[in-house]
Amino acid sequence: MADPYSTLGVARGASEKDIKSAYRKLAKELHPDRNKDNPKAAERFSEVTRAYDLLSDKDKRARFDRGDIDADGNPAHPFGGGFGGGGFRGAGGSRGAGPAGGRQYSPEDFEGFGTEGIDLGDIFEGLFGGGKAAGGAPFGAGARSQRSQPPRRGENKQYRLRVAFVDAATGKDQRITLADGKTIDLKLPQGVEDGTQMRLKGKGLQGPGGAGDGLVTITIDKHAFFRRDGDDVRLDLPVTLDEAVGGARVKVPTVDGAVMLTIAPGSSTGMVMRLKGKGFQTKTGGRGDQLVALEIEIPPDDAELARRLEGWRDSRDLRARFGA
To answer: What angle do CA 111, 116, 121 make, to 5 degrees?
Structure first.
């Protein structure tokens, strides 16, 4: 995998908030449900998710930045650049002489190697036949204990969770089945969006150092007549001519159930009415609104209506502002 910072388009010093924001933007853009005919988008979505997985884990990010692991989370090559670059320094260096005029070595003499992960004790024992450092301790004994790596955790497990539009708006808990067959009730985050990712600690695959995490990517289903507009929900409401002219009380669906709405006399198509707190849960814990747009529907070929309007004309010039 390419450098995870480059994959997400952020700088190495980016904050957790910047990394999360960059991931959400890319995940929404590359989501497979929006790119069904573009397999490259699905591959890119997978790369972006793996990059976020690494950088959102503080321990993995720190190890990657130090060069302990690569972009796929695997241990880096123990010899780094191999014998290239500095290599061994020449024996004629100015480090001083050891016993009987021999060369005295130190870890700096091995600067051509990437020393991370190398047991220097084994190297010095090979050179000096198991020699001792000052105080009688074997060479490299401290380095061996300091550089021992903790057991590796298991891999993270990817999950996809489809959530009904109304459940997402109201924040209804969702039940999900994990890889081990167990089911848990998952609380949706406030302000949940299509492509939002949730992390379930310890719900991934088992490893020597414990289980990895479960990464749940949420997909919000479309609704038959509701539409999302930020934190608001929009609805086009058909009304009859007599309801618009004379006013009426009509039943209107919301994500929380039906409510009664008063239509004022003389209402027109396109008029928008607001139902407070009937939208999506917001990131701050509140609720958006439901915006109801009226659509007056005239019955086709209604002889009775035509008879009643015969001879009547609306004298207003409704198109005067167009200058036509």
So the answer is: 80
